[in-house]
Predict the 3D structure of the following.
Amino acid sequence: MALIIPTITLASGITVENACLVITQLNTNNTTSLTQTLDDENQVQEIPGGQHTCAYQVGIFASEQAVKDKLPPIDLLRDGRTIRVFQLNLSDPAYQDLTPRQAAYQHLQAQEGLSNSTAVEDVEA
């Protein structure tokens, strides 16, 4: 899967038309925790917790064909000069029935400036 965006301006100031955005790094983390405390009656109270999170980075490819031809990305999605690392909570009901990669693409498409992108299913990256 990938996203095609009509135009995007790179950190260098160059504008690329029909660029292909691909998640180039994806990291999931699933933790559980258990906190035990004594209540007012000196009874042990257990409070379970944990998180199921996902962090990812996005590569910008010159085109969909560049991904298919296994060319490297021309840049990474950035905030100014800093590479953007997106994070989401996979426990969110919006991502319940999705794989981490599918959830990341859904999250990415909802970001400011990327809502006009189009999902492309047949791109293998």
Q: What stands out?
A: The mean pLDDT is 93. Strands lie at 2-9, 15-38, 44-61, 75-76, 78-79, 82-83, 86-89, 118-120.
